């Protein structure tokens, strides 16, 4: 089949439309746009689409007022619903001589199969994954008989990014997981799969937090190496509150699953990615449940923090004073003048506070001098 993803979107958007009323993917009139018209011609050449003014199809494209005019000009009754008027015209077809039927795009038998096989493409018309990319994945990596190609495309892209480490920076912005959860929850009403990918989403963000606790000195710690609990809570709580807590509400408030059952779900759902001990996962799921219930029990949070402190934090010994001040260089205005430094001044008009910023070349010169 010599048609592109773009051609197929044109097919979906214009099948059963009037010839001359072609539209773009966003629903706006194409007005004989070259690309749209070329796609339609290609679809016709491939025997996927045809133009027809067959009565049984075209008559339904006429407006009610047009049908009444046809009947009136032939001295026939003009009262009734649109279908009644169509039936009347059909019954008196041989005696009506002013009936001009519009041409309509319809699929051939081959085209009907193509239409059914590629309906998944419409989910990617305004998506981060392009229609062309989605079509390529479906054609090369997904079973032709797959019933939910939309989900499989998101899974493929998520797994690809996961394996090459592209998601490591911040799982909070994993579009593919986000889309999978929404697809299963809203389009498919498949709450088990929605829960599964939500749990993977929660797990990967939690693991990312733990990696930060073990490596980023000034993200979660004060200058003395003490862990700042509010920073952990400020990262975890919005993650849960803002991402699909309705799915967990179903588990807790509608299905009435226990904490233990939800923990077992979490382990099962994340087993492909999970490298953490059950104890920390249990504390984390208990914390999720408390946030979703809006109980926010401080004891549950502190139980989670207790286990984090025992296994997932940087030793205070690493927070030596010189380590903190190694990011600073001592100099004076005379030196900066001698270097012909470019200094920007920022003034807070509310408080009068002044901040100075040095250009990159001067900073590099100072570093070289200090070394």
Keywords:
371 residues, mainly alpha, 4 domains, two-stranded antiparallel ribbon, two-stranded antiparallel sheet, 19 helices
Structure report:
By secondary structure, the chain is mainly alpha-helical. The protein folds into four domains: 5-116, no CATH class; 118-166; 176-318, no CATH class; 329-370, no CATH class. 56% of the residues lie in helices and 5% in strands. The protein is built from 19 helices and four strands. The protein has helices at 5-14, 34-45, 55-58, 64-73, 82-91, 109-117, 131-141, 149-163, 175-187, 191-213, 217-220, 229-241, 245-254, 259-270, 278-292, 298-311, 321-325, 333-338, 360-370, and strands at 49-52, 104-107, 343-347, 354-358. The protein has a two-stranded antiparallel ribbon. The protein has a two-stranded antiparallel ribbon with strand order 3-4. β3 (343-347) and β4 (354-358) form a beta hairpin. α1 packs across α2 (34-45) and α7 crosses α8. The protein is elongated, with a radius of gyration of 32 Å. The termini are far apart. 23% of the residues are buried.
Beta strand count: 4
Strand content: under 5%
Helix-strand category: mainly alpha
Helix content: 55-70%
Topology:
Blueprint: H1 5-14, H2 34-45, E1 49-52, H3 55-58, H4 64-73, H5 82-91, E2 104-107, H6 109-117, H7 131-141, H8 149-163, H9 175-187, H10 191-213, H11 217-220, H12 229-241, H13 245-254, H14 259-270, H15 278-292, H16 298-311, H17 321-325, H18 333-338, E3 343-347, E4 354-358, H19 360-370
Antiparallel strand pairs: 1-2, 3-4
């Amino acid at each position: 089949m010599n048609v592109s993803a773009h051609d197929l979107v044109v097919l979906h958007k214009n099948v059963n439309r009037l010839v001359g009323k072609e539209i773009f993917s966003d629903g706006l009139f194409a007005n004989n746009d070259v690309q749209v018209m070329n796609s339609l011609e290609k679809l016709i050449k491939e025997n996927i689409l045809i133009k027809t003014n067959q009565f049984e199809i075209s008559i339904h494209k006429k407006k009610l007022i047009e049908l009444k005019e046809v009947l009136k000009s032939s001295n026939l009754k003009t009262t009734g619903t649109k279908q009644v008027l169509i039936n009347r015209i059909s019954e008196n077809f041989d005696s009506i001589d002013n009936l001009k039927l519009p041409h309509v795009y319809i699929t051939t038998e081959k085209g009907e199969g193509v239409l059914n096989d590629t309906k998944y493409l419409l989910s990617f018309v305004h998506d981060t994954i392009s229609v062309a990319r989605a079509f390529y994945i479906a054609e090369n990596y997904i079973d032709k008989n797959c019933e939910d190609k939309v989900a499989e495309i998101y899974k493929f892209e998520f797994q690809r990014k996961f394996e090459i480490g592209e998601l490591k920076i911040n799982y909070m912005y994993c579009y593919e997981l986000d889309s999978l959860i929404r697809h299963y929850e809203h389009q498919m009403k498949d709450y088990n799969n929605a829960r599964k990918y939500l749990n993977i989403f929660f797990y990967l963000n939690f693991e990312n937090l733990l990696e930060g606790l073990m490596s980023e000195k000034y993200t979660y710690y004060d200058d003395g190496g003490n862990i700042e609990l509010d920073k952990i809570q400020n990262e975890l709580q919005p993650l849960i509150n803002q991402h699909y807590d309705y799915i967990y509400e179903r588990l807790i408030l509608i299905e009435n699953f226990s904490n233990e059952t939800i923990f077992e779900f979490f382990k099962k759902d994340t087993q492909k990615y999970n490298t953490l001990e059950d104890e920390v996962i249990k504390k984390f799921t208990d914390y999720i449940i408390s946030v979703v219930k809006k109980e926010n029990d401080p004891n549950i949070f502190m139980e989670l923090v207790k286990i984090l402190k025992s296994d997932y934090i940087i030793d205070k010994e690493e927070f030596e004073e010189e380590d903190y001040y190694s990011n600073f260089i001592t100099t004076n205005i005379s030196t900066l003048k001698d270097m012909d430094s470019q200094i920007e001044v920022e003034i807070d008009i509310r408080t009068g506070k002044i901040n100075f910023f040095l250009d990159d070349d001067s900073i590099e010169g100072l570093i070289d001098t200090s070394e």
